[in-house]
Amino acid sequence: MNSQTHIRTRPLLRSNTFARNIALPMNDFIAGTDISRQLTLLEKSQWWQPEELQDYQNKRLRSLIHHAYTNVPYYHDLFRSLGLSPSDIATRDDLVKLPVLTKEDVRKNPGKFVARNIPQKSLIHQTTSGSSGKVFEYFIDRDTLSISRATTLRGWEFAGYRVGDKIATLAGSSLLPENVPLYTKIRFKFSHNLPLSSYNLNSERLNGYLQQIIEFNPRYIRGYPSSIAILAEHAIEHGIDAINPEGVMTTAETLSKTQRETISAAFQCDVFDQFGCFDGGANACECDQHSGYHISVERSVHEFLDDSGSPVAPGENGHIILTDLWNYAMPFIRYDAGDMGVPADRICPCGRGLPLLERITGRTAEQVVLPDGKRLPGLLLTDVFEDGDVVTAIQDYQIVQEKVDEFVVNIVQSDRYSPDINNEIQKFFWGHLGRDVEIRFNFVDEIPRTDSNKRRIVICKVKN
Predict the structure, then answer these.
(1) pTM attached to this predicted model
(2) Which residues are CB-neighbours of 96 under 8 A, at least 6 positions away?
(3) Which of 94, 120, 265, 302 sits at a 20 to 30 Å CA gap from 411?
(4) From 3.40.50.1980, 3.40.50.150, 3.10.560.10, 3.30.300.30, which CATH number describes the 370-460 domain?
(5) What is the pLDDT of residues 41-86, one digit of tens each?
(6) How far apart are CA 181 and CA 163, in angstroms?
């Protein structure tokens, strides 16, 4: 399937004056946020030269470090134990003087990470659960909420979106949380966002969603790539071609080549993948050049480290270590949220000065362990499912490493499946893992999802 065949030329960027200049500031006034002003800054700063962006980032970093040392017990004690003063962390290059922070470090004594000069009433409680399903709790403030929303909106603008455009969101609880406050429900209504739950996507529900989307006529569709791909496949199978948004924005899961092509073919538009980590302040989004993911360096510092803690070279896979430059309520400095990616050393042809993330290689928990002790991004093993006869023979799959020398491939097969597919997958796996590794196949009716209904492609059960 050639995704480029159906893609329409994206129109010139529009200006939605009322939504951008009246509705959004009014929302800020009601909610006590500052999204409109921050978005204005980000719309300008994306065109700054890399040196200007670096200066801005370092300035915010110095302010954060001084605040953390003065007001956050954990960092005050840490600096004193290391014999450091705030002036020792003047640029992002100086961050290597500090240790990497993990979720477990925070869980041991969360109160020590909360700034003493932030009023209790200003703390906004947040929770997240990664691939482990273990809930992680932390606090943010209104400034963090504002910049997070502003960077999200700017990332959407890379796809041509303008504030006030209609969006249909198909996702689970990470994007469409349940039991939200009345204010949030009202904001969804007036922000022209059609929420569609990705749970229980049976034929009847998919038919209903397609009809709702046709009637709603959104400019954009956003959500989990696996869920949108299921919707797209259903539309193709039933000959439904009346949904023609200007773009589809995917996030919260790793977007596969097949999913991108299926979504693009079904809705006759381009697909823009996006990456975010709210607890760490990460934000990186594709523009229409698809030359990588633009990193929002105004929002946070992104480091890419190997297993030993040393920076990786451009083009190499590394742990994404984050320093949120805006969360003064509960600062996370050099925070490892468990994501991995490959940095690039080029500038996008679009002309933005923002540095690029080459690609997302998944979660740390998705790395597989080789018999010699080395680790391999598990998503490399998924390439065999994206081409040739395999892509049409398998409806869904999941790779589980049970032991160092034992892998189980869970497969939802189509009517084109044959024993030859097993041999092709096994040969591909052996090429990456070695022939001493046992590959077992398990045929199932469906692949289980996480509590937030995300699709886990690779699961490694081997402990360090």
Answers:
(1) 0.85
(2) none
(3) 265
(4) 3.30.300.30
(5) 999 999 999 999 999 999 999 999 999 999 999 999 999 999 999 9
(6) 22
